[in-house]
């Protein structure tokens, strides 16, 4: 993939038209195999295990997940048997090696941009499509509403940017990437976008920004009658999820984690009486952020008619 992309960059260097290139890497997705050079960067004996290999207290049953994606690989215990520390270290070793392998490929891409004289006027955005659990809560893979599954790398390099490097604690979402790139490239925005350009954060990373970021995860998605949607809002302190029966609209459960006092999400505090007002505020904020649901229903109706 990297060789192909580098070859394309050489062609762009002699042209005058703008270009857009999306380079997608499978790693560090399963299987965790990488060239020996990158495996040897790490000592398995120094790899630490997750410090919370247990389910959170009082968490709803909708967080229970048996990571079937990993279970399908050879050498992985079947059923619900936990993974040993030895096997866990091997898996984490492979994950780290894969990350380093891809890091090297990204370095090659950036070098090629420079060598072809394209780095001075090319925007570069690096992001991952989802997070990953490595033994936290006794789980692996994604497919839950824990923050680990939706917290991803997002790095942006813009020509002429004067404040580098910088970091922001502002909340941004995947739907914000398209309008951000459009603004930075001087392109007009279509009317249907739901995201918000975070380009202003490049000049002022500490400016007031979104109050929350939304993630959505479906359970039992192969059965419309049993479909349960997990609607979650992440604020600067809390992660709050509502589990809704999509057919009836019934609220089945709530989960609330306080990242200030519980950054690893080990205790669901949604049922505490003193959090009732907070729950109402977060639920209202979540509902305001779900305006796209009506749009999605309209699209589904159109698709069904087609």
Main-sheet strand order equals 5-6-7-8
Order of helices and strands: HHHHEEEEHEEEEHH
Quote the distance from N terminus to C terminus.
37 Å
CATH class of the largest domain reads: Alpha Beta
What share of residues is helical?
Answer: 25-40%
Largest beta sheet, briefly? 4 strands, antiparallel
Q: What structural category characterises the helix and strand content?
A: alpha+beta
Number of domains: 2
- Residue fraction in strands: 5-15%
- The overall average pLDDT, rounded, is 92
Uncertain ranges: 293-306
CATH superfamily of the largest domain: Alkaline Phosphatase, subunit A
Q: Helix tally?
A: 7
- CATH topology name of the largest domain, in short, is Alkaline Phosphatase, subunit A
Radius of gyration, CA atoms, in whole angstroms: 22 Å
Shape: globular
- How many β strands by DSSP? 8
In the CATH hierarchy, the architecture of the largest domain is 3-Layer(aba) Sandwich
């Amino acid at each position: 993939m990297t060789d192909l992309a580098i070859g394309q960059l050489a062609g762009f260097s002699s042209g005058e038209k703008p270009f857009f290139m999306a380079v997608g890497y499978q790693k560090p997705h399963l299987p965790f195999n990488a060239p020996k050079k990158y495996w040897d960067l790490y000592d398995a004996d120094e790899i630490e295990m997750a410090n919370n290999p247990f389910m959170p207290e009082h968490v709803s049953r909708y967080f229970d997940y048996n990571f079937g994606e990993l279970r399908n690989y050879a050498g992985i215990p079947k059923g619900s048997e936990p993974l040993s520390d030895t096997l866990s270290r091997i898996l984490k070793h492979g994950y780290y090696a894969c990350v380093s392998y891809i890091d090297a490929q990204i370095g090659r891409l950036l070098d090629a941009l420079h060598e072809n004289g394209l780095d001075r006027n090319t925007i570069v955005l690096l992001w991952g499509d989802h997070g990953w659990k490595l033994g936290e809560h006794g789980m692996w893979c994604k497919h839950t509403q824990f923050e680990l599954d939706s917290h991803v790398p997002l790095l942006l390099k813009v020509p002429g940017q004067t404040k580098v490097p910088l970091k922001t604690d502002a909340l941004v979402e995947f739907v914000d990437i398209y309008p951000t790139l459009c603004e930075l490239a001087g392109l007009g925005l279509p009317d249907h976008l739901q995201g918000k350009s975070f380009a202003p954060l490049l000049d002022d990373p500490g400016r007031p920004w979104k109050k929350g970021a939304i993630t959505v995860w479906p359970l039992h998605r192969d059965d419309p009658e049993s479909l349960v949607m997990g609607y979650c809002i992440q604020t600067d302190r809390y992660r709050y999820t509502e589990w809704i029966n999509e057919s009836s609209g019934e609220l089945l459960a709530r989960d609330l984690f306080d990242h200030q006092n519980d950054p690893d999400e080990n205790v669901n505090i949604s049922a505490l009486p003193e959090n009732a007002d907070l729950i109402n505020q977060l639920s209202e904020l979540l509902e305001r952020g779900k305006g796209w649901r009506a749009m999605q229903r309209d699209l589904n109706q159109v698709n069904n008619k087609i």
